[in-house]
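Moderator note: this is an archived Q&A kept for reference. The question asked for a predicted structure of one protein chain; the sequence and the answer are reproduced below.
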Amino acid sequence: MLKSLFIKNYALIEEISVEFERGLNIITGETGAGKTILIDALSLLLGERASTDVIRKGEEKAVVEGVFVVSGAPKIATLLKQNEYNASDELIVRREISAKGQSRCFINDTPAPLSLLKEIGDALVDLHGQHDHQSLLRAETHVDFLDDFGDFGPLLEEYRAPYRELLQLYAAKRELQEKEQQLREKKSLYEFQMSEIDAVNPQENEEEQIEAELKKLENAEKLFELTSQLYGMMYDGENSLHDQLGRASKQLDMLNEIDAAFAGSVGEAKSAEIIVEELSKFLHEYKEKIEFNPERLETLHERLGKLILLKKKYGGSLGAVLERRKRIGEECALAENFESELSKVSVAIQKQHGICSERAQKLSAKRSEAARKIEKSILASLAELGIANGKFSVRIERKKIERSKNDGEIPDDTLKIGNDYFAATSHGIDSVEFYLSTNAGEDVKPLVKVASGGEVSRVMLALKSTLAQSDRVPLMIFDEIDTGVSGRIGQAVGMSLKKLASTPQIIAITHLPQIAGLADTHFAVEKIENGKRTTTRLRKLMVEERVHEIAKLMSGAEVTAAGLKSARELMGMK
């Protein structure tokens, strides 16, 4: 349940801090006072996206924080544990929207991603906004209501996972078939390109190796001259560096015999002498290997020219040439083995098709069982809501696809159940629609065509009441569930909400005194003008204040003694 709510600098709200109670919490207020703003702020807390437009004019950020009691919600504890958050009997959720466009989420004062906040919000709260009436008037949403009632989320995902893979396999097959035609048209060109590249047979990094070798061959004379001069200076010439170091080393030995201070210098001279010997040896060996080879030079220039030509034709670099050779080689190999590749995909499709068909059939059977249960439950709820002679039916249909033995392959959007083929979607093979009759003797017709505004409200409440029995969401929020109803029917709606509030906590916005009179806790939304600013506030009403508020709902701004008396009667007061 929602224990407390704190809102600051959100739209017309400067600051609100309110504590809710168990049972039925009713919120009333004049049109435009800001009731919808409260629902929007709660939606933000439950993971809905927001813009900087919600920030109160002149402020830096908007803050919405809720404290939830989650001791009886094991799903929340599991979610927190899976995402490495500390779990306790209370859960603190906070959203902050800054004027700079930044949105921050916190769970138990620890930063959290918006996706997790939404997941937790879905497990905590069923929020029925005014637009949800419209969803009931779209037949395509009825399957979602049925699946929610049956708690078929896991079963639906068991079907959807292989169904997604099946669609991917069909897409891969179409791509192969399209590529087959393209390759047949390009095969000759590809074969010519491969033969042209293979004739040169370029190797990875070959160009760099050739250029390095060319540099040495083109500078062979300079290399020989410089290494010869350097070798003579260091070792082989008259008064070479090696000879001078030898003489210096002997003199240092003589000095060391007189003064040990030269001991280190003796070692350094020996090291220098060794270094000169090693360098001289390298120079001599390098000089002997220098190659004067005009034929090799010409061969390398010719080879480099071929590589440059390939680069110009196939991508601008040797790496691009090699990549193109690999790719068109694979394409040509595929062209030679299309039947084999298509056969592999077809076998995979057949296997995946069988899995999808089996799971779709299982899901369909479960829906049929759930449909009978939801019909019975909703009829009972509708009777309590003033539709005594109502009829409610959940119709599950499958679109059969007629096919003969000569039709060839199975179409992408069908599944085979037994010997028959049915149209399939991500929801399975079922088309679900609610049918309704609210008058004795009338046959049921599609709800989307026959229900009035008041009837839609009651059907929606009946659905919510039915779903609450299986959903066990600890908090349900209704924004004007009483749309289109009044008088005796309003009283029935209020009694249904009161009954429903014995399990989950209910927060309901209403304009009907018949509903407000049944509140366990009553809040009034008020719009206050203070100077040049308008502020919305939420105030918990005491008993006499409740009487006055309900009387206002009944008779308008001018409250009479008769109105107060009627309000007390609605509240069950003497």
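Archived answer notes: The CA atoms of residues 166 and 353 lie 7 Å apart.
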